[in-house]
Specification:
single chain, 231 residues, Protein Transport Mog1p, Chain A, seven-stranded antiparallel β-sheet, three-stranded antiparallel β-sheet, 4 helices, 10 strands
Length: 231
């Protein structure tokens, strides 16, 4: 690296000042006998300013070297750790981005990144409102749809698929949109306030899968069901 002429001048100034101070101190320490010599008050003040100036510059240079070395080391360690974490399937699956696109008549969800393998077809709703039973399962290579009904004919639909391969569409129809975070999971909720049309939706991701849940449910109930999906 080449220094500018101004930087070289500053470097030589510091060097000469430090040499001057050292020479003066050596002469004073080697002086024996005779009358004690004292410098003028102005010279003493100037000498102290020079020493402080050199000391501050040296301290700043040392601090800069420590900070730069620490930053490079920390970046290297974090880079290695992140690379090692990404080599683990479960960690790699969690690194992704949810994209919600708001269109004129519907919201579209997609997921960039995540797991890209065979679907786990054993996920179920671990909690259900009273009277609901699993009535039907439809599936393909990367998507599962489970339908639960009660004796009154009310329906709860639970759908999940491989996040990297599935896009979901939700039609808000004046439903209230809510983003709700429980623990480390964020739910995208569409809650109906219409007593005649209580159909509500929830969408969420776990890094490997995208999930959607819909039914005649209020906010608390739909989140409670979502929180109890069996692994």
């Amino acid at each position: 690296m080449r220094f500018s002429e101004r930087a070289n001048e500053r470097l030589w100034d510091d060097f000469l000042r430090e040499a001057l101070i050292e020479d003066c101190e050596n002469e004073l320490s080697s002086f024996e006998g005779g009358e004690a010599h004292s410098f003028s008050e102005g010279f003493e003040k100037r000498l102290k300013r020079i020493k402080r100036s050199v000391g501050r510059k040296e301290a700043l240079k040392s601090a800069a070297k420590v900070v730069a070395t620490g930053a490079v080391t920390a970046a290297s360690v974090l880079g290695v750790c992140f690379a090692l974490l990404l080599s683990q399937p479960k960690i790699h699956a969690a690194v992704g981005v949810v994209i919600r696109e708001v269109l004129s008549d519907h919201d579209e969800y997609s997921y960039q990144g995540g797991f890209d393998g065979e679907i786990d077809d054993q996920k179920r709703l671990g909690y259900l409102p009273e009277g609901y039973k699993l009535r039907r399962i439809d599936y393909d290579d990367f998507l599962m749809l489970l339908s639960y009904k009660n004796y009154a004919g009310d329906l709860i639909e639970f759908q999940y698929g491989i996040a990297a391969k599935c896009e979901l569409s939700v039609y808000p129809n004046d439903r209230e949109y809510i983003e709700k975070t429980v623990g480390k999971r964020t739910y995208y909720l569409y809650i109906s306030g219409d007593e005649y049309d209580r159909w509500s939706y929830a969408v969420w991701y776990d890094g490997s899968y995208v999930f959607s849940l819909s039914g005649q449910l209020d906010e608390d109930e739909i989140v409670k069901i979502a929180e109890n999906v069996t692994e």
